[in-house]
Specification:
The complex is a heterodimer of chains A (786) and B (339).
Chain A: H1 16-20, E1 36-42, E2 48-54, H2 56-60, E3 64-68, H3 70-73, E4 94-95, E5 101-107, H4 110-119, E6 121-126, H5 133-137, E7 152-160, H6 163-168, E8 172-179, E9 192-197, E10 203-207, H7 212-223, E11 230-233, H8 249-261, E12 265-268, H9 271-277, E13 283-292, E14 298-310, H10 316-325, E15 335-344, H11 359-376, H12 380-387, H13 406-416, H14 419-422, E16 430-440, E17 455-461, E18 468-472, H15 481-493, E19 500-504, H16 520-547, E20 554-557, E21 560-563, H17 571-580, H18 595-606, E22 610-615, E23 635-646, E24 653-663, H19 670-689, E25 720-725, H20 747-759, H21 770-785
Parallel strand pairs in A: 1-12, 10-11, 14-15, 18-19, 24-25
Antiparallel strand pairs in A: 1-5, 2-4, 2-6, 3-5, 7-15, 8-13, 9-10, 9-12, 13-14, 16-23, 17-18, 17-22, 20-21, 23-24
Chain B: H1 13-16, E1 53-55, H2 60-69, E2 75-77, H3 83-88, E3 96-99, E4 109-111, E5 115-119, H4 124-129, H5 131-136, H6 138-146, H7 150-153, H8 158-164, H9 172-177, E6 181-186, E7 189-194, E8 199-201, E9 204-205, E10 212-219, E11 225-232, E12 243-252, E13 257-266, E14 273-274, H10 276-282, H11 289-303, H12 314-338
Parallel strand pairs in B: 1-3, 2-3
Antiparallel strand pairs in B: 4-5, 5-10, 6-7, 6-10, 8-9, 11-12, 12-13, 13-14
Helix pairs in contact in B: 10-11, 11-12
The chains are: A alpha+beta (786), B alpha+beta (339).
């Protein structure tokens, strides 16, 4: 095996000291002289016509600098995917959900801005609202968007192989329905932004975002500005999970106000506004039919899915495709059909959240795997291994598994959880369950059609020779990408991690599509590696000339120059270096020539040493409609075993422990890999057991804070045994691939399968609140005694 | 400034969360038929505290004078875990806030021969660490330990929990079964009120406009007594109870019959209530599993009057009252026998 000096270690995070001591700067920490505060007026109605807007009172309030509506902001449509731009900055003719933006104010203080918002008078004609998929699809239901009849935002119909024929060959056919609930990602930093414009007309937006690049493009489009005149930066970001993977209204409003007033403007979401803006995981209803032979061979899958979309599309087109596309693996499945429907209604829009579109489909399907295993009397792990794809296989919808440690993951959790001893032997009320899952390691295509590189990285050596500076437009949002790229560059050059400094999250630094679809480690990692190798090559070439040694005989390792054969006499170079540094304290006296000396000499010969790197995946996927969704240069995969205790009398579930194995290719930073595995499990447990955004009959969110929206607390978190499985991904930098989203895939079904093992009844609706579990147990008891 | 490391989402949850994330307890309308009022439905912005006059009296007498001056329009600030959240959300408004933090007398737990006195400003963390509470009032400790999370418990006070008068409040069932006397002080002097008659409805108490709740008097349980508290929620911390129950039991050590018993139920009526039918059903019975189960059944059928809301249905609440009553009695009994 190739030996690495920096990657595959437990490296301390670069951002840890600042974050642990409270010194890390987030958007809201930043202020500017003369800065104004913005605030938005949002609709109190789920569906209403706007008859008139009177801003005069608000404008007269002392301290108010501007009040804007769609008149000032314009009516350019935008959204996430160009196929479906259905939003404007402000509602024009009508509002479509409680929270739809109507107007905004900029004022000298936040208090005044908020007061002014209350003074804006809007006359509404309230329209009947539809709040559920069922109501929205009824004949004669109120329509949200004229151009989308029947409130159907998007539909997908796909068939691969022949499902009908496939079922004819099956001995067992299972059909189940599964329903989840709308989620909130509950990141700790609410969306915030600060826009400012300089005297030469360059607009700078500092924002809590996962995707400075896409925000830059959307701001340019909506404000009618040159992309080159807009700079988007993100400081430290307190989580995103998909919700911050597109421009939001607040960012656009903030930019419009700053440009109009020629003053810096800051805006913040409250937690309540985070819930109003939403854009997190959809509510899914899946109807899945799986057919298998007596020996366990999977033959066909028929899949129907309804997505509760909310008032606008957001990521929805991609979501409805993802929900279908990612069931084609990890098992060999020759026949698969998918019918997906995303339905508009008068609630906030849903979008992308960790495990985009695929989490609940996976939860439904992995339960069917267990049902089939039970019926044919096969161990659930055996059934899965029997059907498992191998590295190099391609799914029926053209997704290629270039590396695939899925079976190894199963073996690891089998051993790690003591599965063979526990399965089938636990007392009543205790259960053990497992599931598998996989996810893309970066979307194969940008959101907009383009030949653009997905990322570029610049690496520059400091002129003293001491450090490598890395510039990337990628987004560190808490997941550890800055540390990963610094490690990759250090490895690529051959220097210690502490000699790398990194700056990121700024569109001036290059192109990077950002932190979504678990893309950065693989994609930006490639570009970082290439940039590092580029500077390394330049230094070695100078050195080769200076020492009159063939460049192939030179290497850099751990900050020293290595010579394959005899070490040439480098005393002249060292003397030159030391002369340059007369009076300095760090003159080299090592036996080996240091990288610092070599790098300084390279500067003296060539000027600044700058390396560049870039990455764009090769063309991926098939030719059918929607073939792009689900494609990726690589797929991360994982298996989990959950052990639970169910209180039969109250329905309360305790997760006793989770054993998790994830194939992330070659791990870059073990700390971050394990952190992502634990974080995914935490999010999965929340979704499985108690997270649910609840609306009243007016379309208002009832639990719009973190007291009533119940994320997992540290007290709910079970012990997690995280096992890192390292395959060698041919398409990944140093063989690396994703861990950020794939790790959430098995969590929910593993818990569901364990709960079934504990109580003998399957529950088809999430979350598994004590009351829902209690009712299921009661219903089961009644059925049994009847 | 945010102090948490974000490599995982909520894993280091307890580190950086601020008090506003967590505890505001039940929000009930003051109307007869109580409904959840949610949570700013006017489309207003509400992240800033409104302006108010702030007072920091150093004696109870001064505080009473201030309260009298503003005739019930001033709000008392103890831990602030409810008040500040409600002010931000504009669920309540006030122009005057009287902080109790400078009145030292209110933050003490005093142990007398037959009773203890808990000051109104004693925090949940203080309760939890107090030796006498640990040894003699374990059900109250359980209640306090389940309120919110560490950060909330460092601020939230027992007086605040009681004056909040939420039907689901964590310390109330235990205070009820320990036969607590509420100590009130006004311009005309002090009075003691049995806690059963202190609550009038969600958020409503008998406390007068010019009175201050200064503390609680709890008789020290005799030998052969035990008590326990259990709450039920969706998660294990920072939770608002779906239901909660406390039971107190006194045993005749000779024949193991139940000499005395008190049961209190939370979140199944407009105030926390005593489960009198269940208590009657247990009197003089032999303490065993059947008796406890029966008591649970009586509590479920006869004593509780729950409603549906988004935390749980009435039917589930009823069922859980049965289970929790039985379980608290079992543990209380074990404690009583261990003495």
């Amino acid at each position: 095996m190739e030996k690495f000096d920096v990657i595959r270690s437990y490296a301390p995070r670069l951002d840890a000291p600042d974050k642990a001591t409270g010194k890390a700067i987030f958007t809201d920490d930043i202020s500017r002289p003369g800065m104004l505060y913005g605030a938005m007026l949002q609709s109190p109605h789920a569906h209403a016509k706007i008859i008139s807007i009177d801003t005069s009172k608000a404008e007269r309030l002392e301290g108010v600098k501007a009040v804007i509506t769609s008149k000032e902001a314009g009516t350019i449509k935008y959204g996430v995917s160009p196929a479906r731009y259905d939003e404007t900055v402000f509602a024009t003719d009508k509002v479509r959900y409680v929270g739809d933006e109507i107007a905004a104010v900029a004022a000298t203080t936040l208090e005044i801005a908020l007061k002014a918002v209350d003074l804006i008078q809007v006359e509404y004609k309230v329209l009947p609202a539809v709040l559920t998929i069922e109501d929205a699809m009824k004949e004669g239901a109120p329509q949200l968007h004229e151009e989308f009849a029947g409130n159907l935002c998007a539909e997908v119909h796909q068939e691969f192989g022949n499902v009908e024929e496939g079922f004819k060959k099956c001995d067992i056919i299972k059909t189940t329905t599964m329903k989840s609930k709308r989620q909130d990602a509950a990141f700790i930093e609410m969306q915030a932004c600060l826009a400012e414009i300089d005297r030469r007309g360059t607009l700078t937006l500092t924002t809590s975002s996962q995707v400075p690049h896409y925000v830059q493009r959307t701001v340019a489009m909506v404000l009618g500005m040159d992309v080159g005149k807009i700079r988007v930066m993100k400081p430290y970001v307190g989580g995103g999970f998909g919700i911050k993977a597109a421009a939001n209204h607040q960012e656009l409003v903030c930019c419009i106000l700053a440009r109009m007033l020629n003053k810096p403007v800051k805006m913040n979401f409250t937690r309540e506004q985070v819930f109003k803006y939403a854009r997190a995981r959809h509510q899914f209803t899946h109807v899945i039919t799986t057919g298998a032979k007596k020996d366990g061979t999977l033959v066909a899958l028929k899949h129907e899915c309804y997505l509760d979309g909310g008032a606008y599309t957001s990521f929805g087109i991609a979501t409805v495709y993802y929900s279908g596309a990612l069931l084609s693996g990890p098992y060999k499945l020759p026949n698969m059909s998918y019918d997906g429907y995303r339905v508009y209604n008068n609630k906030p829009a849903c979008g992308a959240q960790r495990g985009h579109g695929a989490v609940i489909a996976r939860a439904a399907f992995e339960q069917q795997m267990d049902m089939i295993a039970e019926e044919i009397g096969m161990d659930p792990m055996e059934l899965r291994i029997k059907n498992m794809m191998n590295a190099g296989d391609t799914t029926c919808n053209d997704l290629n598994m270039s590396s695939f440690g899925m079976s190894e993951c199963i073996e690891a959790v089998r051993e790690g959880s003591d599965w063979d001893k526990k399965k089938g032997t636990l007392p009543k009320g205790k259960g053990i369950g497992m599931a598998c899952g996989f996810f893309v390691s970066g979307a194969g295509f940008p959101i907009y059609r383009s030949d653009t590189f997905h990322c570029t990285v610049i690496c520059k050596l400091t002129e003293d020779g001491g450090a490598a500076l890395v510039y990337t437009a990628s987004a560190e949002i808490g997941q550890g990408s800055d540390t990963a790229f610094a490690m990759i560059v250090a490895e690529a050059i051959g220097i210690p991690l502490e000699n790398v400094r990194l700056a990121s999250g700024d569109t001036d630094m290059g192109v990077d599509l950002g932190a979504y679809s678990s893309r950065q480690t693989l994609m930006t990692g490639h570009a970082a590696k290439e940039a590092g190798e580029h500077v390394r090559q330049q230094v070695l070439e100078v050195l080769a000339t200076q020492l009159n040694t063939p460049v192939e005989e030179l290497d850099i390792k751990k900050g020293f120059i290595e010579f394959k054969n005899k070490t040439p006499d480098f005393s002249a170079l060292r003397t030159r270096y030391i002369k340059e540094h007369r009076g300095w304290t760090d003159n080299p006296d090592s036996e080996k020539l240091t990288f610092k000396e070599a790098s300084r000499i390279a500067f003296l010969e060539k000027g600044s040493i700058v390396g560049t790197g870039k990455y764009r995946p090769h063309w991926l996927g098939g030719k059918f409609k929607g073939a792009a969704v689900g494609t990726s240069p690589a797929y991360g995969c994982s298996a989990q075993v959950a052990e639970v205790t169910v209180d039969i009398e109250t329905g309360q579930i305790t997760i006793d422990n989770i054993t998790d194995a994830h194939d992330c290719g070659k791990a870059i930073n073990m700390n971050s890999v394990e952190g992502q595995m634990q974080g995914s499990i935490s999010m999965g447990i929340g979704e499985a057991l108690h997270e649910e955004v609840i609306f009243n009959d007016k379309g208002e969110v009832l639990n719009n804070d973190l007291a009533e929206y119940k994320i997992v607390t540290s007290m709910d978190m079970p012990p997690v045994k995280a096992i890192v499985i390292e395959s060698d991904e041919p398409n990944g930098p140093f063989g690396a691939k994703e861990v950020g989203e794939g790790a959430i895939m098995p969590t929910i079904p593993a818990i569901l399968n364990a709960v079934y093992d504990a109580i003998g009844v399957r529950i088809s609706e999430l979350p598994l609140t004590p009351e829902r579990v209690y009712n299921a147990i009661q219903a089961y008891k009644e059925k049994k005694s009847a | 400034m945010i102090f948490t490391i974000f490599c995982v989402r909520h894993y280091e949850y307890d580190v950086g969360i601020d008090i506003f994330l967590s505890t505001y307890r039940f929000l009930y309308d003051s109307a007869m038929d109580y409904q959840i009022i949610s949570i700013n439905q006017k489309g207003e912005n509400f992240m800033l505290l409104p302006k108010f006059e702030f007072y920091e009296p150093t004696s109870i007498q001064q505080a009473i004078e201030l309260k009298k001056k503003y005739q019930g329009k001033a709000k008392l600030l103890a831990g602030g875990t409810d008040l500040l959240v409600h002010l931000k959300k504009k669920l309540i408004t006030t122009d005057h806030i009287i902080s109790l933090s400078k009145i030292k007398d209110l933050s003490q737990i005093k142990e007398e021969r037959d009773f203890i006195e808990i000051g109104a400003c004693v925090t949940m963390s203080q309760l939890s660490k107090s030796k006498v509470i640990q040894e003699k009032f374990s059900a109250l400790k359980e209640g306090g330990d389940n309120l919110g999370n560490h950060l909330i418990r460092n601020r939230a006070t027992i007086g605040g929990n009681v004056c909040g008068a939420s039907p689901a409040a964590d310390t109330l069932p235990a205070l009820l079964v320990y036969q607590t006397q509420v100590l009130l002080q006004g311009p005309d002097g002090r009075r003691k009120v049995a806690i059963e008659s202190f609550f009038k409805g969600p958020g409503k108490t008998i406390i007068k406009d010019d009175e201050i709740l200064t503390g609680f008097e709890l008789p020290i349980p005799q030998k052969n007594c035990g008590a326990h508290y259990i709450q039920l929620g969706k998660r294990k911390s920072s939770e608002i109870n779906v239901v909660n129950v406390a039971s107190f039991i006194e045993i005749n050590p000779g024949n193991k019959t139940i000499k005395n018993c008190r049961i209190a139920l939370g979140a199944v009526a407009a105030t926390p209530i005593r489960s009198f039918f269940a208590e009657d059903a247990l009197k003089n019975k032999t303490a065993d599993e059947t008796a406890f189960y029966e008591a649970g059944e009586v509590a479920r059928r006869k004593d509780c009057k729950p409603i549906d809301d988004f935390r749980g249905t009435a039917e589930y609440r009823r069922a859980m009252i049965g289970v929790l009553t039985k379980r608290t009695l079992e543990t209380a009994y074990k404690q009583a026998m261990a003495q």
